[in-house]
Sequence to fold (202 residues):
Amino acid sequence: MNAMNVMPLQITVAATAVAVGVALWAGSGDARGGGPRAVVRRAVLTLDRVSTEVASILACLALAIAVGAGAWQVFSRFATSTPSPWSEALVRMALIWMCYLGVAVALRVGALVSIDVLHRYARGVMRRTVEAMILAFVLSFMGVMFWFGWSMTERVQFQTIAGLEFSMAYAYAAIPLGALFAMVGATANFLDRRAEELENAV
Fold:
């Protein structure tokens, strides 16, 4: 593994350790108080409300675009016998954006598929430790996604998407942007846990 790949991992691990430490510190105070812990917690949750709402709206918009372009592709192929050259590429790009933005929303509400046996039966400090480990893994993975997603976006900025004839960077930008939204959502879920799907599961 060369230095170009090692450095991002080292930075990601260090940043994850700091972020989890701050999250543990902010989450350990009285949420209703006015101390620095409560200020940091409220700031993260306020940022999350905005970012998750934006991610949700954009993901829904991307899904609507994919459905519309897909419907047009079917119509143009079978009704006019002249398949649209751009709709398939647009569907693919819209679905990529929908997935990467949707991950942030799923992380925020605890809706991703998970193996939750350890968390379900853990109590007190052990449960908080499990949650901190989960946060660390998510932030590390999303940090790597952000770093290499950004790098790939820069590399392909002069390449064009066949059929759409604009920069491929517009598609690849979903990776770093989705990773940023997901990191905020995961941290907010750690500070204000929501896991209705898991809590109600049999």
Notes: The chain has eight helices and no strands.
